[in-house]
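Methods — Computational structure assignment.
A single polypeptide chain was analysed. Its primary sequence is given first, followed by the predicted tertiary structure written as structure tokens.
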Amino acid sequence: MGSPVSPIVANLFMHSLETSAIAKSLCPPKLWLRYVDDMFIINKRDGMEELFNNANSISENIKLTKELESVDHKLAFLDCLVERRHNNKKLKINVYRKSTHS
């Protein structure tokens, strides 16, 4: 088992990583949310690539992966399906249900 302070140290490290990545970015994100080790970021597509590369260059021990929205402007995040309404720039959030194989 890990130490009881491990989650606190991990949160502090991730906060430091986020702050450094954003500070290095020429196009800072419009929104950056994190729950444990899952991040939801809204940014311009070219700014997203730069931000992703900045974050991955900070520590060799942490390598982030990314998932971009689909062609129909949807993205599963945690147990939510986030849909970007292209015409009015609003987000619609529904419960995400994985497809089952029965």
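Note: The longest strand covers residues 80-85.
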